[in-house]
Write a structure and sequence with these properties.
This protein has about 475 residues and is of the alpha/beta class. It is about 30% helix and about 25% strand. The strands form 4 sheets. It has a 10-stranded mixed sheet, with helices on both faces. The chain is globular.
Length: about 475
């Protein structure tokens, strides 16, 4: 009997999760089509390599002319999207991305969901790589390009499916957090902070989402959590399953701690110690205390899944990392250019600290694009100024044009790059706001010196500033 699911169409296919699921299904031999607006690498390139045609722009004809067996709708799509509207009104089978991911890929597996405000992508890749390298043959879907897996997904024959669990809402017709749809049996909570200001009012609203994740865990499940955070400890109350705490120090009485954390040119080393006396030396080619904590989280998780500590620690030593996480784009004229996804002030602070530790003695020039719905609001205005304390110079880009979306109906004041510059200067730092991308490239080309490290932090395409900087420095 033929498989009834032969053709799947993705509305807003170029999101990392949507594109990755599309690629996974294409690898099974299904016909995959998709549409989106504003196509740009790396996902547009990956989709082309996988042989998935993408139509630019949304039109009802993209549905009616091909009559797919299933239409998957991404959360970037609104209720007035012509393809989503057509699919629903004409009675096509429709699923949100999280429900499609569960139904078509996760169901039947031991679901390992990696959640938290920060560190999800790296920790997901770390857990997946340990399971793969120790012979567990996991499936994986991660919100970034993993150098170890040469992509953002894999389909294995093992029992585990490791997935990055986002707290963002699911789709316009289902406003629950994505991570509630993945049937977590093991879950990691790396951190809980206020973010996604377009859908959450405040930290308490965010906590409510994570409390729902905790409450939905099965009695025989496992929660691995960064208990050094008061907010994490708060959402763990009344957990119905086993909780294993971890942290870099004794705050929150974790089961696992990291002792003797040491940073060198090769990466970060520490000793993972359990309260029962078990211990293992860890060396991972990542930088920053937050990455040490990510590595510890992965180690604790796979230990709970039955992977011997020594085997797991050996894998961490060879981890290759994630694209756009402290990724070296190149060096020209003696100036190193690094690309990082950091946009929340906690991530910005951690990334600057990590780059400072990796390139000790070199001048760090931080370039920041406030592009997300959260960073374009004034909610973290002062926190951003403090986040750049370890940078030698800061260049602030103009926020993108356009109105801010808010499901809560609350926007208030918007972020001011001019005020950030003033606040950094008031703290004794050096900061400037030259203008658009062209002006930033010209400014840095005129002021950077051999030995400088330019750390670009943005979660978008940023006018391909990385390559333009390298051309300018090498010219």
């Amino acid at each position: 009997m033929a498989d009834p699911l032969q053709h799947v169409h993705f509305v807003a296919i170029c999101g990392t999760g949507m594109g990755s699921l599309a690629g996974l299904l294409r690898a099974r031999g299904l016909r995959i089509t998709g549409s989106d607006e504003g196509l740009y690498p790396p996902m547009s390139t990956a989709l082309a390599e996988w042989g998935i045609p993408v139509v630019e722009g949304f039109r009802a004809e993209n549905i009616t002319d091909t009559a797919p067996d299933l239409v998957v709708i991404g959360n970037a799509v609104g209720p007035d999207n012509p393809e989503a509207r057509c699919a629903i009104d004409e009675g096509f089978r429709v699923l949100s991305f999280p429900d499609a991911l569960f139904d078509l890929a996760i169901a039947g597996h031991h679901s390992v969901v990696v959640a938290g405000t920060h560190g999800k992508t790296t920790t997901t890749a770390l857990v997946g790589q340990i399971l793969q390298a120790t012979g567990r043959d996991p499936s994986l879907l991660v919100g970034g390009y993993s150098f170890d897996f040469a992509g953002s997904f894999r389909e294995g024959a093992g029992e585990h499916f490791v997935v990055e669990g986002d707290e963002y809402d699911t789709v316009f017709f289902d406003k629950t957090p994505k991570f509630l749809h993945y049937g977590a049996r093991t879950a990691i909570i790396t951190s809980v902070e206020f973010d996604h200001a377009d859908i959450y009012r405040d930290l308490e609203h965010v906590k409510a989402a994570f409390r729902a994740l905790v409450a939905g865990m099965p009695a025989d499940g496992t929660l691995v959590a960064a208990v050094g955070s008061e907010a994490v400890r708060d959402v763990l109350r009344d957990a119905p399953c086993r909780v294993i705490g971890y942290g870099l120090d004794a705050t929150g009485a974790p089961d696992w701690t990291a002792h003797d954390v040491d940073v060198s040119e090769a990466g970060t080393a520490f000793v993972a110690v359990h309260g029962d006396g078990r211990r293992v030396a860890v060396s991972v080619p990542l930088f920053g205390r937050f990455n040490a904590e990510n590595a510890l989280a992965a180690l604790v998780t796979v230990d709970a899944l039955g992977v011997p500590l020594a085997e797991a620690a050996k894998v961490l030593h060879d981890f290759r990392g994630i694209k756009r996480r402290q990724e070296v784009r190149g060096e020209a004229g003696g100036v190193l250019v690094i690309d990082d996804f950091a946009h929340h002030p906690t991530a910005v602070r951690g990334t600057v600290e990590a780059v400072r530790s990796r390139y000790s003695g070199r001048r760090i020039v931080a370039v920041f694009e406030p592009r997300t719905n959260t960073s374009r609001r004034a909610v973290f205005q002062q926190s951003y100024a403090e986040a750049f304390d370890l940078a030698d110079r800061v260049v602030v880009a103009l926020p993108p044009q356009g109105a801010l979306y808010s499901a809560t109906g609350e926007v208030g004041e918007t972020f001011s790059p001019e005020r950030l510059v003033a606040d950094i200067r008031a703290r004794g730092g050096a900061a400037e706001q030259p203008g658009d991308v062209d002006a930033i490239v010209q400014h840095l080309a005129a002021t950077c010196e051999p030995g400088d490290v330019v750390l670009v932090m943005s979660n978008g395409a940023f006018g391909n500033i990385w390559e333009r900087l390298l051309q300018a420095f090498g010219g």
